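Quick one: structure tokens for this chain, please?
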Amino acid sequence: MINIGKKRDYTKLVLVFICTLVLVLSQTATYAQDKFVVVLDAGHGGKDPGRPAKNFSEKDIALNIVLKLGNKLKVLDDVEVVYTRDKDVFVDLKERGRIANEADADLFVSVHCNAFSNDASGTETYVLGLHANKQNFEVAKNENSVIFLEDNYQEKYEGFDPNSPEAVIGMTLMQEEFLDQSLYLASNIQTNFRDQLKRKDRGVKQAGFVVLHQTYMPSVLIETGFITNHSEGAFLNSKSGQDKVSGAIFNAIKSFKKNLDENLVIEETPIAEVKTSSKVYPGIDFKVQISSGKKKLETKSYNFKGLKGIERGKIGSMYKYYYGKSSDYDQIVKMQKEARKAGFKTAFVVAFRGEERIQLSEVINQSL
């Protein structure tokens, strides 16, 4: 005979256990979703050695830098690292993009080394865009030529020819809405190379890299230096040099993430960090920029994941799309959170005085 009282106590214990388990699992799921995912892409690998140099291997240097960078990022509790390759294997360009997209990455960082026929030196960081000059096109062409090593490349890339300027120009800029963020990170990386490592700064550039074209998040391709330059090649080939380069990139990523976490604006040029206070700013219109691109879209909610009241502006050749408008900073931050919840994970706050777009820090600093 079963004691009814004991049976009820047992049932209560089971219910408590189930409720506790559900709570733990839900918290774990939420934590996992809140991870800032960084996909690290070591250029070349396997049968693709990378750029030719007498004494140095691009594929090995790129992998070593990426692994060191990954170890630094893994120290951060809220960051998850995904590698496109973590050993000497060949991974095609489309697969690298697929890995990043399937990971729902917040950032894609591709690491390479440069090479040239003379004693050129210095670092440069690229974002996706139309090549501005012949030199940028040549860099992109060399990196894109790896597709010739891939099986069925003509079918896979639908006839894309990396040797044709017209083909590169014709690439759809799927990544346009992340251009501002990509430029911001690229600028931070170059600043760190110049100021922290005292490397020659060759600047932030745009070119038609296939590997960047395949991704749907802020993405950069870093040329960490010239392995055809004996001094620079030796630096990149050394454990000390690789640690310093990975450290400079790590600091740039950490700064990028910090700005996103603190709702600071990410524009085409870096701004100083500022502390905001809760108040209304007369004469200032805050807006949430959710995307940008060269395509002129109708400001209908179906084009913007259900968000209503979208405003379209144009700066240069780029259309900017904004959600909300208020002189109350707290109110616009709430709308920024709404935009991110809707799927625009890199939405950020911008400020206008009349029709003129101004730096957010300029507004906030004047009120302190």
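The chain has twelve helices and eleven strands.
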